[in-house]
Write a structure and sequence with these properties.
The chain has 136 residues and is α/β, with parallel strands linked by helices. It is 51% helix and 18% strand. It has helices at 10-23, 34-39, 59-69, 84-92, 105-134; strands at residues 2-6, 27-31, 47-51, 74-79, 97-100.
Length: 136
């Protein structure tokens, strides 16, 4: 799976990249701002881990552009702040998950990746089932 990591904090970017390398085989691209992410969407990532607060273009703006480009891309917001209203707003507008940066980040990322894999598998099975019935 292709994964984009987008965060303007080089330390956090490196940490999440290390975590992902430890939990699976991913083709990981790192970016330090949302504009770079938007410009590289033609690489067709499967998952985008996206920082909420970035310079130039915030996570919400970037997520909207990602979802306009391809609604099937799983966008996972990672934030240093836990604001329930923002979390609900992100989920309502298409984020797969909203993760707070804390001491349990590794577990949260692992669980989110497992949920994404389950969702993809379920979608593929349903698609295969409907294709057999309707011949699409």
């Amino acid at each position: 799976m292709k994964v984009f990591l987008v965060d303007d904090d080089p330390f956090h970017l490196s940490m999440v990249q290390h975590l992902l390398q430890g939990v699976g085989k991913f083709q990981i691209s790192t970016m330090q701002d949302g504009i770079e992410c938007i410009n590289k969407l033609d690489s067709n990532p499967d998952i985008v881990f996206l920082d909420h607060n970035m310079l130039y273009c915030n996570g919400f703006q970037v997520m909207k552009k990602i979802k306009q480009y391809d609604p099937k891309i799983h966008v996972v917001i990672i934030s240093g702040e836990e604001n329930i209203d923002e979390k609900i707003d992100f989920i309502r507008h298409g984020a797969f998950e909203f993760i707070t940066k804390d001491d349990h980040l590794y577990e949260k990322i692992s669980q989110t990746l497992e949920r994404i894999e389950n969702a993809r598998t379920s979608y593929e099975k349903k698609g295969g089932f409907f294709n057999k019935i309707f011949g699409t």
